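Field: COMPLEX_INPUT
Field: COMPONENT_COUNT = two
Field: RESIDUE_TOTAL = 226
Field: MODE = joint
Values follow.
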Amino acid sequence: DAKTTQPPSMDCAEGRAANLPCNHSTISGNEYVYWYRQIHSQGPQYIIHGLKNNETNEMASLIITEDRKSSTLILPHATLRDTAVYYCIVSYGNKLVFGAGTILRVKS
Amino acid sequence: ETGVTQTPRHLVMGMTNKKSLKCEQHLGHNAMYWYKQSAKKPLELMFVYNFKEQTENNSVPSRFSPECPNSSHLFLHLHTLQPEDSALYLCASSQEEPPWGSSYNEQFFGPGTRLTVL
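Field: COMPLEX_OUTPUT
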């Protein structure tokens, strides 16, 4: 079973930052936090991952709390094309366990 | 071709048929995966191949038989399926280092094969 809890859905205005929360209170010391997204009818797409430190790439930022029990994915300027299901995954190594994810709807 | 390709994109089969799904990755990766995504259920990892060796079988029924002839190709052979096996089957690949299964690298997914079992 997935070790993460995410809200089922969120709305965000186009051009605004989208902040997607994830709880993973049972995370182990060697488990990473991954974020993927799935746009309708496509395969999932990797966004970002991290262990302890905050991470940033061209797509998003990942903020992990100091106790590692929760994290937030930030899309700094959401566009309509960011509408998708966002999955927060906690995993050791390459065996990813997906949960239900958060449906993010970006609205104009 | 670039990335991860899957064929066919759509497949309809009867319960007595035998069919195969094909996945090819053009990324030079050494690990490949099969996932299943049923309606209203999360993606489920089915099989993991690290450097052509199966390292994970997530309690998948024997009517699903994977084959990895080389690090670029992955097949899923299907026989005597049930209607509840209808789903989107996704292939992915990544570049891994030994010890197998311990690294944290991005997985690249293909577009999937939409399977309908009648």
